[in-house]
Amino acid sequence: MRVRDDAEFTEFAAMMIRPLRRTAYLMCGDWHRAEDAAQDALVKVYRRWDRIERREGVKSYAHRAVVTSVLDQARKPWRRERPDDPDEAARVVPDIGGSVDNRLMVIKALAQLPPGQRACVVLRYYNDLSVEETAVVLNVSQGNVKSQTSRGLDRLRELLGHTERSAS
């Protein structure tokens, strides 16, 4: 890779590391696994840097790589769940009412979604990707993204509504 390409990649990696980590964390609920997944994704991008279309292709490829990495990690037998850390929730999930407890509830609810629904919800609502961009990242149809997102949001409403009723 040429020096100019290295500089471009370094700039891209600096810009994308936080969004990739956030996506991975929301997918897996573990900060350390999220860090590994984000780094794995950037390694994959680096290896293909010369061949990826620079406009939107490189961001889509990075998001696809991080989602794939998280799903691959989940299949590994050595994977272990980690205890909840309120500080992680405060860093990663946007303020949804000011409470770290609310953020933890969202993270726990996301973890209960099937992987496809979780990926669609995270990419659409935490990364602000369009239906079309999400379909490209996940390599599925736009209709699949719409249905998975709808089912995921319905399930989140059910889970979060149930949690709130139980707490009162």
From TrEMBL:
GO annotation, biological process: DNA-templated transcription initiation
Domain RNA polymerase sigma factor 70 region 4 type: 104-156
GO molecular function: DNA binding; sigma factor activity
PANTHER family registered for this protein in UniProt: ECF RNA POLYMERASE SIGMA FACTOR SIGM, RNA POLYMERASE ECF-TYPE SIGMA FACTO
Keyword Oxidoreductase in annotation: no
Keyword field: DNA-binding, Sigma factor, Transcription, Transcription regulation
Species this chain originates from: Kribbella antibiotica
Protein name: SigE family RNA polymerase sigma factor
A Pfam family: Sigma70_r2
Ranges for domain RNA polymerase sigma-70 region: 18-79
SUPFAM superfamilies, alphabetized: Sigma2 domain of RNA polymerase sigma factors (SSF88946), Sigma3 and sigma4 domains of RNA polymerase sigma factors (SSF88659)
Keyword set includes Cell membrane: no
Family: Belongs to the sigma-70 factor family. ECF subfamily.
Coiled coil: none
Alphabetical list of InterPro entries matching this protein: RNA_pol_sigma-70-like, RNA_pol_sigma-70_dom, RNA_pol_sigma-E_actinobac, RNA_pol_sigma70_r2, RNA_pol_sigma70_r4_t2, RNA_pol_sigma_r2, RNA_pol_sigma_r3/r4-like, WH-like_DNA-bd_sf
